[in-house]
Amino acid sequence: MTTPGNKDADGPTLVVGLGNPGPRYAGNRHNVGFLVADELADRVGGKFKRHKSGADIAEGRLDGNRVALAKSRSLMNLSGGPVAGAVRFYKVAPESVIVIHDELDLSYGAVRLKRGGGENGHNGLRSISKSLGTRDYLRVRFGVDRPPGRMDPADYVLRDFSRAERSELGFFVDRCADAVSALVGKGLEAAQNEFH
Protein backbone atom coordinates (compact mmCIF):
# COMPACT_ATOMS: atom_id res chain seq x y z
CA MET A 1 0.00 0.00 0.00
CA THR A 2 1.31 3.43 -0.93
CA THR A 3 0.76 6.62 1.01
CA PRO A 4 1.75 9.92 -0.62
CA GLY A 5 4.82 11.29 1.09
CA ASN A 6 6.17 7.80 1.88
CA LYS A 7 9.17 7.15 -0.38
CA ASP A 8 9.67 3.62 1.03
CA ALA A 9 6.27 2.30 -0.04
CA ASP A 10 6.23 -0.80 -2.26
CA GLY A 11 3.62 0.07 -4.87
CA PRO A 12 3.03 3.19 -6.94
CA THR A 13 0.84 6.11 -6.00
CA LEU A 14 -2.26 6.10 -8.23
CA VAL A 15 -2.87 9.54 -9.76
CA VAL A 16 -6.14 9.92 -11.68
CA GLY A 17 -6.78 12.77 -14.11
CA LEU A 18 -10.49 13.27 -14.79
CA GLY A 19 -11.88 14.08 -18.23
CA ASN A 20 -13.92 12.79 -21.13
CA PRO A 21 -12.14 10.70 -23.79
CA GLY A 22 -11.95 11.65 -27.46
CA PRO A 23 -11.14 14.73 -29.55
CA ARG A 24 -14.62 16.22 -29.10
CA TYR A 25 -13.88 16.96 -25.43
CA ALA A 26 -10.11 17.51 -25.55
CA GLY A 27 -10.13 21.30 -25.02
CA ASN A 28 -13.03 21.42 -22.52
CA ARG A 29 -12.67 22.89 -19.04
CA HIS A 30 -13.95 19.54 -17.73
CA ASN A 31 -10.85 17.86 -19.19
CA VAL A 32 -8.23 19.76 -17.23
CA GLY A 33 -7.49 16.60 -15.21
CA PHE A 34 -6.46 14.87 -18.46
CA LEU A 35 -4.22 17.83 -19.35
CA VAL A 36 -2.41 17.63 -16.01
CA ALA A 37 -2.10 13.83 -16.32
CA ASP A 38 -0.56 14.29 -19.78
CA GLU A 39 1.96 16.76 -18.36
CA LEU A 40 2.84 14.31 -15.59
CA ALA A 41 3.27 11.50 -18.13
CA ASP A 42 5.74 13.71 -20.02
CA ARG A 43 7.65 14.30 -16.80
CA VAL A 44 7.94 10.60 -15.96
CA GLY A 45 8.69 9.60 -19.57
CA GLY A 46 5.63 7.36 -19.67
CA LYS A 47 3.17 6.67 -22.47
CA PHE A 48 -0.51 6.01 -21.79
CA LYS A 49 -1.48 2.45 -22.75
CA ARG A 50 -4.78 0.60 -22.63
CA HIS A 51 -5.17 -1.27 -19.35
CA LYS A 52 -7.60 -3.97 -18.31
CA SER A 53 -8.97 -1.66 -15.59
CA GLY A 54 -10.78 0.38 -18.25
CA ALA A 55 -8.33 3.25 -17.93
CA ASP A 56 -5.30 4.25 -19.94
CA ILE A 57 -2.25 3.98 -17.66
CA ALA A 58 1.26 5.46 -17.76
CA GLU A 59 3.86 4.42 -15.19
CA GLY A 60 7.11 5.99 -14.13
CA ARG A 61 8.93 7.90 -11.41
CA LEU A 62 7.93 11.40 -10.40
CA ASP A 63 10.83 13.01 -8.53
CA GLY A 64 11.96 9.51 -7.52
CA ASN A 65 8.51 8.27 -6.46
CA ARG A 66 6.71 5.50 -8.36
CA VAL A 67 3.43 6.63 -9.87
CA ALA A 68 0.72 5.09 -12.02
CA LEU A 69 -1.13 7.80 -13.94
CA ALA A 70 -4.68 6.96 -15.03
CA LYS A 71 -7.18 8.43 -17.48
CA SER A 72 -10.54 6.66 -17.73
CA ARG A 73 -11.67 5.52 -21.17
CA SER A 74 -15.30 5.92 -20.09
CA LEU A 75 -17.19 9.21 -19.98
CA MET A 76 -16.59 11.39 -16.92
CA ASN A 77 -19.85 10.35 -15.24
CA LEU A 78 -18.71 6.70 -15.30
CA SER A 79 -15.12 7.23 -14.13
CA GLY A 80 -15.60 5.24 -10.94
CA GLY A 81 -15.48 1.75 -12.49
CA PRO A 82 -12.10 2.20 -14.20
CA VAL A 83 -10.66 3.99 -11.15
CA ALA A 84 -11.81 1.19 -8.85
CA GLY A 85 -10.32 -1.34 -11.30
CA ALA A 86 -6.95 0.44 -11.16
CA VAL A 87 -7.14 0.61 -7.35
CA ARG A 88 -7.65 -3.17 -7.23
CA PHE A 89 -4.91 -3.86 -9.77
CA TYR A 90 -2.29 -1.79 -7.96
CA LYS A 91 -3.55 -2.78 -4.48
CA VAL A 92 -3.74 0.87 -3.45
CA ALA A 93 -5.83 2.04 -0.50
CA PRO A 94 -8.58 4.40 -1.69
CA GLU A 95 -7.32 6.95 0.85
CA SER A 96 -4.03 7.11 -1.09
CA VAL A 97 -5.58 7.78 -4.51
CA ILE A 98 -5.06 11.29 -5.93
CA VAL A 99 -7.80 12.63 -8.23
CA ILE A 100 -7.19 15.76 -10.36
CA HIS A 101 -10.39 17.56 -11.40
CA ASP A 102 -11.90 20.85 -12.51
CA GLU A 103 -13.44 23.04 -9.79
CA LEU A 104 -16.07 25.72 -10.41
CA ASP A 105 -15.70 27.26 -6.96
CA LEU A 106 -12.08 28.33 -7.50
CA SER A 107 -10.82 31.19 -9.64
CA TYR A 108 -9.23 30.20 -12.94
CA GLY A 109 -5.87 28.50 -12.45
CA ALA A 110 -6.06 28.30 -8.65
CA VAL A 111 -4.93 24.95 -7.22
CA ARG A 112 -6.15 23.52 -3.92
CA LEU A 113 -5.43 20.15 -2.34
CA LYS A 114 -7.59 18.34 0.17
CA ARG A 115 -8.67 14.96 1.44
CA GLY A 116 -12.30 13.90 1.22
CA GLY A 117 -15.34 16.15 1.31
CA GLY A 118 -18.40 16.33 -0.88
CA GLU A 119 -18.59 16.10 -4.65
CA ASN A 120 -20.16 19.56 -5.09
CA GLY A 121 -22.19 18.40 -8.10
CA HIS A 122 -19.16 16.92 -9.89
CA ASN A 123 -20.41 13.68 -11.47
CA GLY A 124 -16.92 12.27 -11.99
CA LEU A 125 -16.20 12.57 -8.26
CA ARG A 126 -19.63 11.17 -7.42
CA SER A 127 -18.95 8.10 -9.59
CA ILE A 128 -15.53 7.56 -7.98
CA SER A 129 -16.90 7.94 -4.44
CA LYS A 130 -19.64 5.42 -5.18
CA SER A 131 -17.28 2.88 -6.78
CA LEU A 132 -14.62 3.17 -4.06
CA GLY A 133 -17.20 3.19 -1.27
CA THR A 134 -15.59 6.27 0.28
CA ARG A 135 -15.09 10.00 -0.28
CA ASP A 136 -11.83 9.90 1.66
CA TYR A 137 -9.41 10.13 -1.27
CA LEU A 138 -7.07 13.00 -2.11
CA ARG A 139 -8.27 15.76 -4.45
CA VAL A 140 -6.25 18.19 -6.53
CA ARG A 141 -8.76 20.89 -7.51
CA PHE A 142 -7.97 23.02 -10.58
CA GLY A 143 -10.03 26.22 -10.69
CA VAL A 144 -12.04 26.90 -13.84
CA ASP A 145 -14.17 29.72 -12.32
CA ARG A 146 -17.96 30.06 -12.33
CA PRO A 147 -19.90 30.33 -15.59
CA PRO A 148 -20.86 33.83 -16.72
CA GLY A 149 -24.39 35.10 -16.17
CA ARG A 150 -27.02 32.40 -16.03
CA MET A 151 -25.13 29.81 -18.07
CA ASP A 152 -25.72 26.24 -16.92
CA PRO A 153 -22.55 24.97 -15.16
CA ALA A 154 -22.87 21.65 -17.05
CA ASP A 155 -22.73 23.52 -20.38
CA TYR A 156 -19.88 25.73 -19.17
CA VAL A 157 -17.52 22.90 -18.21
CA LEU A 158 -18.16 21.18 -21.55
CA ARG A 159 -16.99 24.26 -23.45
CA ASP A 160 -13.40 24.86 -24.46
CA PHE A 161 -11.22 27.27 -22.55
CA SER A 162 -11.48 30.80 -23.94
CA ARG A 163 -8.66 32.29 -25.99
CA ALA A 164 -7.59 34.41 -23.00
CA GLU A 165 -7.64 31.36 -20.71
CA ARG A 166 -5.66 29.28 -23.21
CA SER A 167 -2.87 31.88 -23.17
CA GLU A 168 -2.22 30.99 -19.50
CA LEU A 169 -3.34 27.36 -19.50
CA GLY A 170 0.11 25.84 -20.00
CA PHE A 171 1.47 27.74 -16.99
CA PHE A 172 -1.43 26.67 -14.75
CA VAL A 173 -1.28 23.02 -15.89
CA ASP A 174 2.45 23.02 -15.13
CA ARG A 175 1.85 24.49 -11.67
CA CYS A 176 -0.88 21.93 -10.96
CA ALA A 177 1.50 19.14 -11.99
CA ASP A 178 4.05 20.61 -9.54
CA ALA A 179 1.40 20.43 -6.81
CA VAL A 180 0.71 16.76 -7.61
CA SER A 181 4.42 16.04 -7.47
CA ALA A 182 4.67 17.73 -4.07
CA LEU A 183 1.64 15.79 -2.83
CA VAL A 184 3.16 12.47 -3.95
CA GLY A 185 6.58 13.23 -2.52
CA LYS A 186 5.89 15.26 0.62
CA GLY A 187 2.33 14.45 1.68
CA LEU A 188 -0.80 16.57 1.98
CA GLU A 189 0.11 19.07 4.67
CA ALA A 190 3.48 20.02 3.19
CA ALA A 191 1.99 20.32 -0.31
CA GLN A 192 -0.86 22.49 1.00
CA ASN A 193 1.63 24.78 2.74
CA GLU A 194 3.55 25.14 -0.52
CA PHE A 195 0.66 25.69 -2.94
CA HIS A 196 -2.18 27.32 -0.97
Give your account of this protein's structure.
The chain is built from 6 helices and 7 strands, in the order βαβββαββαβααα. It is α/β, with parallel strands linked by helices. It has a 7-stranded mixed β-sheet with strand order 2-3-4-1-5-7-6, with helices on both faces. A hairpin with a 2-residue loop joins strand 3 and strand 4.
Q: What is the straight-line distance between the termini?
A: 27 Å
Structural class: alpha/beta
| Fourth CATH level, the homologous superfamily | Peptidyl-tRNA hydrolase
Instruction: Write down the secondary-structure element order.
Output: EHEEEHEEHEHHH
Active site: 30 (proton acceptor)
GO molecular function, one term: tRNA binding
Function: Hydrolyzes ribosome-free peptidyl-tRNAs (with 1 or more amino acids incorporated), which drop off the ribosome during protein synthesis, or as a result of ribosome stalling.
Family: Belongs to the PTH family.
Q: Summary?
A:
Its main location: cytoplasm. The chain is of the alpha/beta class and 196 residues long.
